[in-house]
Amino acid sequence: MTQQIIEMVSGDIKTLTFMATEKASPNAAATAINLATVTDIDVQIFAVDEEGLPDGAAVVSENLAGDVDLVGGGTGGLFSLALVAADSDSLVGDYWLEARIEDASN
């Protein structure tokens, strides 16, 4: 898992772009995953508890049928989440973003 810190202001309209990668072994370099054939990508944003872990229900939840898109067809491992002002209006503090990628075998 790679930690990425993204700073936003409540009410921001922003597109967040991510790259899905994998490693053949712990010491190997990460390579992009071809997402062109995935069946879904679910992205959820959670408030965090005092230990920095997800707490409660997701405050934002999107997928490929909604505001998650493959960038360049997904062949380079890139996908994005488009946040509108209504998604970030009430967000204050630190949040955890989690993405789940599904293929035909889940």
Features:
106 residues; mainly beta; 1 helix; globular; 4% helix; three-stranded antiparallel sheet
Describe the structure.
With 106 residues, the protein is mainly beta. Helices cover 4% and strands 42% of the residues. The protein has one helix and eight strands. It has a three-stranded antiparallel sheet with strand order 1-7-6. Strands 5-4-8 form a three-stranded antiparallel sheet, with no helix packed on it. It has a two-stranded antiparallel ribbon with strand order 2-3. The two termini are 20 Å apart.
SSE topology sketch:
Blueprint lengths: L13 E6 L1 E2 L8 E2 L7 E9 L5 E9 L5 E3 L7 E6 L1 H4 L6 E8 L4
Antiparallel strand pairs: 1-7, 2-3, 4-5, 4-8, 6-7
In short:
The protein is mostly beta strands and 106 residues long. The chain has one helix at residues 85-88, and strands at 14-19, 21-22, 31-32, 40-48, 54-62, 68-70, 78-83, 95-102. The two termini are 20 Å apart.
**Which structural class matches the secondary elements?**
mainly beta
Shape: globular
Number of strands: 8
**Lateral strand order in the biggest sheet:** 1-7-6
The proportion of strand residues reads: 35-45%
Number of helices: 1
